[in-house]
């Protein structure tokens, strides 16, 4: 740690850094930032930076407001979009109480706890997200709807298109920040794009996702367009998911790989998938945390709506890909429900906890879904035992409220805050009179 701190202090001096932003995330997943001058960095390392936690969503009650932000020197990076005038860097922070205890409300700490639990069982947890988002001409609506920057489709090459320049600039900026990108392309919706981050341990990936969202927003501003991670901004077009590939390693060995297993998936891998399936409905209020998330899950367009698993089945909730037969290190499973607006720290914590529960309890993997699940009738799905994911935030919150797994993994403070926050959102949404109702009913009733 001292070497890392020395490196940070030396780099600040050599590169002429003028400001250092300390980043952390509230319970909803919004990035928070406070800038300090280089002279304050050494003190922040030693003692942390004090702030009023009661002003941050879900952090503390008013009578225990004092919190400390402790910068993690391993996350130090210079922000490329700030340029050479007043160079600015950032570090992610862990949040603690004044007596040095990790904050029970810090999402990064929730994930660290989950990873420590996995480590006690000999596992390290790796994730690889495919992040979708929409590029719009602006945040303003045109004729009551967002206006995409193009009308292109999946993998389309758009000569002179905004999205090309946008993706190239974003990928270069991410690489400058030390975030490896696997590939990028136009997605199926008009103005929809996808950038996939390379595999990393789950904590690094969660930090990278928070940085990614900021980079995408900054590049959009720079190029005169608007980027949104809203799960379903356009009716009749696909929503933005964050399909997440996951694997457990025991040392250098991929615990999901068995060359003789079905799809080369080991017993541990099958039990992990069984855990994801069994607990999927109760974790959905976190992996899909907004009212709008359920417009994506139940709007068709390849979003999973039922608790199933499959191999090349795009309608399944969990997919077991087989890209590189015989390459054990690449064995993984893909969870397809999570959307791009999830808090990655909390979502990864629950996906890991659900999978580990499957391993601990020896859950049996149900039969694979080989049909297109959307094209089956309700009676056929019931006969096959395909349980639906929650169809609304209200239903998702009710399922989460009864979940021991979620309560234990998030901890009482975060668990109660998420419930409170999401109930409030549902109540506000339920009170709205929407354009759909007015258009459907006003003139005929």
From TrEMBL:
Q: Which keywords annotate this record?
A: ATP-binding, Ligase, Magnesium, Metal-binding, Nucleotide-binding
Instruction: Show the GO MF annotations.
Output: glutamine synthetase activity
Tell whether Nucleotide-binding is among the UniProt keywords: yes
**What family does this chain come from, according to its entry?**
Belongs to the glutamine synthetase family.
What Gene3D superfamilies is this protein classified in?
Answer: Glutamine synthetase, N-terminal domain (3.10.20.70), Glutamine synthetase/guanido kinase, catalytic domain (3.30.590.10)
- Requisite cofactors: Mg(2+)
Q: What is this protein called?
A: Type I glutamate--ammonia ligase
Annotated gene: glnA
GS beta-grasp domain location: 15-100
Does Phosphoprotein show up as a keyword for this record?
no
- The UniProt record lists the GS catalytic domain at 107-445
Q: Which PANTHER family match?
A: GAMMA-GLUTAMYLPOLYAMINE SYNTHETASE GLNA2, GAMMA-GLUTAMYLPUTRESCINE SYNTHETASE
What NCBIfam families does its record include? Answer: GlnA
Q: What is its EC number?
A: 6.3.1.2
InterPro entries, sorted: Gln_synt_N (IPR008147), Gln_synt_N_sf (IPR036651), Gln_synth/guanido_kin_cat_dom (IPR014746), Gln_synth_cat_dom (IPR008146), Gln_synth_gly_rich_site (IPR027303), Gln_synth_I (IPR004809)
Organism equals: Antiquaquibacter soli
């Amino acid at each position: 740690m001292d070497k890392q701190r020395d490196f940070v202090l030396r780099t600040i001096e050599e590169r002429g850094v003028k400001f250092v932003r300390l980043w952390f995330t509230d319970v909803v997943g919004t990035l928070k930032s406070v800038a300090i001058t280089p002279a304050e960095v050494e003190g922040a390392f030693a003692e942390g930076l004090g702030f009023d936690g009661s002003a941050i969503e879900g952090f503390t009650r008013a009578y225990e407001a004092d919190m400390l932000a402790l910068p993690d020197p391993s996350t130090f990076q210079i922000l490329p979009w700030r340029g050479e005038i007043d160079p600015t860097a950032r570090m992610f922070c862990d949040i603690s109480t004044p007596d040095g205890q990790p904050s029970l409300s810090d999402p990064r700490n929730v994930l660290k706890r989950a990873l420590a639990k996995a480590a006690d069982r000999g596992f390290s947890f790796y994730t690889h997200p495919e992040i979708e988002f929409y590029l719009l001409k602006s945040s303003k609506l045109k004729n009551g709807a967002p206006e995409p920057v193009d009308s292109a489709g999946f993998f389309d090459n758009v000569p002179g298109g905004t999205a090309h320049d946008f993706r190239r600039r974003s990928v270069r900026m991410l690489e400058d920040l030390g975030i490896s990108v696997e590939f990028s392309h136009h997605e199926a919706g008009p103005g929809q794009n996808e950038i996939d981050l390379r595999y990393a341990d789950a904590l690094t990936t969660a930090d990278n996702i928070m940085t990614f969202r900021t980079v995408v927003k900054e590049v959009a501003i720079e190029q005169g367009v608007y980027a949104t991670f809203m799960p379903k901004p356009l009716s009749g077009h696909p929503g933005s998911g964050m399909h997440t590939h996951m694997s457990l390693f025991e040392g250098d060995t991929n615990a999901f790989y068995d060359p003789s297993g079905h799809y080369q998936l080991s017993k541990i891998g099958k039990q992990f998938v069984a855990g994801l399936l069994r607990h999927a409905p109760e974790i959905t209020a976190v992996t899909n945390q907004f009212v709008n998330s359920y417009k994506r899950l139940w709007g068709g367009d390849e979003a999973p709506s039922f608790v199933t698993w499959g191999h090349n089945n795009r309608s399944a909730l969990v997919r077991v890909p087989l890209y590189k037969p015989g390459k054990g290190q690449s064995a993984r499973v893909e969870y397809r429900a999570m959307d791009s607006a999830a808090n990655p720290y909390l979502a990864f914590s629950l996906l890991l906890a659900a999978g580990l529960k499957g391993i601990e309890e020896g859950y049996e993997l149900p039969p694979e879904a080989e049909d297109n699940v959307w094209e089956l009738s309700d009676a056929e799905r019931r006969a096959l035992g395909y349980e639906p994911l929650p169809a609304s935030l209200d239903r998702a919150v009710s399922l989460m409220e009864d979940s021991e797994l979620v309560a234990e993994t998030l901890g009482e403070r975060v668990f109660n805050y998420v419930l409170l926050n999401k109930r409030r959102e549902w109540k506000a949404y339920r009170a709205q009179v929407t354009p759909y109702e007015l258009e459907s009913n006003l003139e005929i009733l």
